[in-house]
Amino acid sequence: MADDTDPQPETAPAQKSRAGAWTVRAVLAALIVGAVAIGGVLFFTGAFEPKNEEKAPRLAASGTVLARSKPGTCLTWDKDPTTMAPVDCLESHKFEVAGEPARTLPENAPYPTESAIAAQRDQLCPPVVTEYLGKRLDPMGRFQTNLLTAGQKAWESGDRTMRCGIQVADGAGNALETKGKVVNQDQSLTWPPGTCIGLSDRGKPTGPVECTKPHALEVTSVIDLRQAFPDASWPTKQQQEDYLGRICPSRTTGWFGSQDGLRKSGLQLAWNTLSQPSWTAGSRSVICFLASSKDTVTYTPITGSAKSPGLLIDGKPPVMPTFPGAKPAEPSTGPR
Prior knowledge:
This protein is of the alpha+beta class. 18% of the residues lie in helices and 25% in strands. A hairpin with an 8-residue loop joins strand 15 and strand 16.
């Protein structure tokens, strides 16, 4: 299990790659890192890693649009980034401008590759975003730093305009719409109860999908840790786990609407915790969720909501866990 001082957010495990594991911060990556068997139900705790800088989207616009975009400007576009235009930040938008990086690529530099832009972003944008927000961006929250450049035609004519900013992206690296300025929002990576998070072909979580599609986990509750730790400079990982170990089972029972809903589902109850950097950045919310894993490293595909009669785990109907001495349960295929 990760150490309390580990900068990786504690949400449902994660392997590190540089700078927070997935580079441009687009995809949720989560691995289950620890487990304790309690009353026949397996509880996982760990850290979500939502950033993927290996799938940085190519975000390009005309130099004119970027040049006019001052810190605090919110931008949006259709599928084609060249349609980028400023909008009121209270409206749906895909990028919030933090400022201009200290330096850019040389005038004779070729149109940069995604890896080149990622390198520029990682080197130049963090201090710009920190100065703009007045605090650090949660390294494991739902908002990610990115870099906008002039489009290829503008670039080839000598336009080197760039803007650092903040966005939300899905598992494929596509910018998602959000409303309001980042500084006014809880940066926590959470989803409403009943949301299912997809599964990559490597057994890692991606982003929200329909529950009828194969997925890694299903959210049962969002927990605001301020209720338990209103004055804490940072509740330790163990303090969070002790609290969530008490509240997640009751919240999940309420979500199912029955005392034996979790057992009948055949799934495992898990939750995430917040690292000290995430807490310091202002994140306060975590999730309780249902998942299945055979090795505590990768997720087993789930199809259908945990509440649905057609629930399948790894393509098979769920088998209810039993307590010691209990009569083995038959596979559950009927309505719950």
